[in-house]
Structures are given as structure tokens and as C-alpha cells.
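Question (not urgent): is this output format expected?
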Amino acid sequence: MRGSPLFYALLAFLGIALVGFPVYSLTRPYAVKTEATATATPAPSHAPVKVPIEFAFTAEPKSMRVKHLGKVVWSVDAPGARTDTELSLEWPQEGVDLLVEITWPENTPLAAARLTLTDSHQEEQTRSIWGEGSASEVLTFR
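Got this back:
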């Protein structure tokens, strides 16, 4: 047997150490420096848009209310069989959700309401609500 096994082991560990140091420096986790400007970006605000909306009912309601973003944007008592108005709404790209609450007089059979809205792209969109006595529904317009 020629040479010392201890010498060959030392050479092997030295070779592993020479290769291991660059591998360790390339694969070790490191802290990413971030700037102190980690503030939350505010949601973009959308300018209000005038949106014409028409209501048609199969039976005249006692009252109705339209809410947008938790605020009452239109409310009327005894609107008649047909009515229309123009609402000022923030219209984001995702669309608008309107909460429509309608109350019909007592003993009114099943009734319907049709809402026709002209959106910010000048396209008509129609939604319907059915109810007996009262109805409350969220309608989405895109």
C-alpha cells in the first residue's frame, strides 16, 4: 500500500472545501434590501359618472330604494308603474353593484321590477327582480 490514507482523506476534504465554498455562497439565503416606502397604495378613485336608469313594475310599488357602496343614491315613495332617473355613480372597470330594495303594498301578488341601465360604455343592461310584499337584491352591472 503506497501513501497514507490519512493524506488522501485530507486531500479529498480539501477538494470538497474548495468546491463547497462557492456552492455555499451561491445557494445561501440572503436578506433583500427593501426601501422604506412600503406604504399601502390607495385604491384608484373613479370619477362619478351620470348613469341613466329606468324602472318598470308589474304592480306599482309602495316605495323603493337604491344603494351603492353602502349609501342610498336614490329613494322614492310611490314611484308609479314606470319611472326613470339619472344616478351619479363611481363606475370602476369591474362594474357596479347596486342594492335595490322594493316594497309593494300588502296583498299584492307576485310582482316584478325591470331595471334598464345605460352603462359608461353607452350599452343598455337589463336586470329583473321578483318579489311578494318586498324584495331586496344586489344587481351587478358590468
